[in-house]
Amino acid sequence: MENNNDILKWLNKESSDEELLRLQETEDFKTLEKIAHYSSQIEPPKVDVDKALADLKLRTQNKTKKGKVIAFNVKDLYKYAAAIVVLLISSYFIFFNKEATIKTEYAQTKTFNLPDNSEVILNSNSEISYGKKSWDEDRNLALDGEAFFKVNKGKKFTVSTEIGNVTVLGTKFNVKERANYFEVKTYEGLVSVAYKDTLVKLPKGALFKVVNGVIDTNTTFDIEEKSWLQKESNFKSTPLQIVLEELENQFGYTIETQEVNLAILYSGGFTHTDVNLALQSVTIPLQLSYKIEGKTITIFNYGK
Fold it and tell me: CATH number, domain at 295?
């Protein structure tokens, strides 16, 4: 019941910081965000609340002769009724919009086509969702993770992430959005990237990267350089923490560290085909060691 009250307060924009944090930690928060997003785009039916309350009061008075009547707080009834209407209408909209969701697990990739035949290659531990019914009018999808897009020309095509948005008409580009990391690379055409108050245009060979909320000064990349599409990850002046997270995504191991500076910058790459070769490619240049026990990798300094 406590969680339901948190949801109602959140929908009515009445949540305290503590209540919002508690709600964000639940598994269903992303679904609630989608419901709120869709509900903001539709107009709810006009309900005569005063008439509904009058009818309720009349029915309540008629029932006093038959048994106990529970008293309602009118202000709360208004608030909860409005929230319930939003939930019901939004759920109806989501259901009939036939939202499609494609996910990958650790060490897994997927290639698929969108309704306009644009091609998507989804990297490991990633997710894409979009509305099938509305796709022809609004080529808009949500990405959590990393994907390569080969977009057919047509109406505006938008990739939305929690950190920034990418908009194109028809092109080839890669979007990566992980914890505290956002990166866009243009392989063909022109890509528009929106991050907070920053709007940039990326031509072929251009790069836009944000690490821990700071825009990186590197603005280009080598198109011929191998990428995860060729089963290889490459990094340029990237914090070790992000490199290790990508190792977890590609191999499905849990990585632990002992007295290792996770902020140290790494430039290089690793293969996706052999976990030992991948670990050596990362640890040797940084003078680190590692050990593998089951599905857990421990990384530590030499001599520890």
Answer: 3.55.50.30
Residues 127 and 77 reside in one and the same domain: no
Instruction: Take residue 193 and report the two structure tokens written for it.
Output: 């990237």
Backbone angles phi, psi at 180, to 5 degrees: 60, 25
pLDDT tens readout for residues 106-158: 999 999 999 999 999 999 999 999 999 899 889 999 999 999 999 999 999 99
Are both 105 and 205 inside the same structural domain?
A: yes
What is the token pair recorded at 186?
Answer: 């243009």
In the chain, the largest separation of any two C-alpha atoms, in whole Å, equals 84
Three-class SS state of 196: coil
* Residues 132/138/144/147 CA torsion (nearest 10 deg): 90
35 shares a domain with 24? yes
Q: Is residue 69 predicted with pLDDT exceeding 50?
A: no
- 271, with CB counted inside 10 A (0-12, 13-18, 19+), is middle
Q: Which amino acid is at 216?
A: D
Q: Print the domain residue range for 39.
A: 2-97
Same domain (yes/no): 113, 189: yes
pLDDT value for 98: 76
HSE-up (13 A, CA, CB side) for residue 87: 15
What totals of helices (H) and strands (E) does the chain contain, helices first? 7, 18
Give the count of domains, the chain: 3
Query: What DSSP designation does 13 have?
Result: T
Asked if residue 206 lies in contact with residue 222, where contact means CB atoms within 8 angstroms, the answer is no
285 is written with which tokens? 């240049």
- H helix runs in the chain, sequence order: 2-11, 17-24, 29-39, 49-63, 74-97, 240-251, 275-283
Whether 238 and 267 have beta carbons less than 8 Å apart is answered as: yes
Structure tokens that stand for 82 in this block: 């409005």
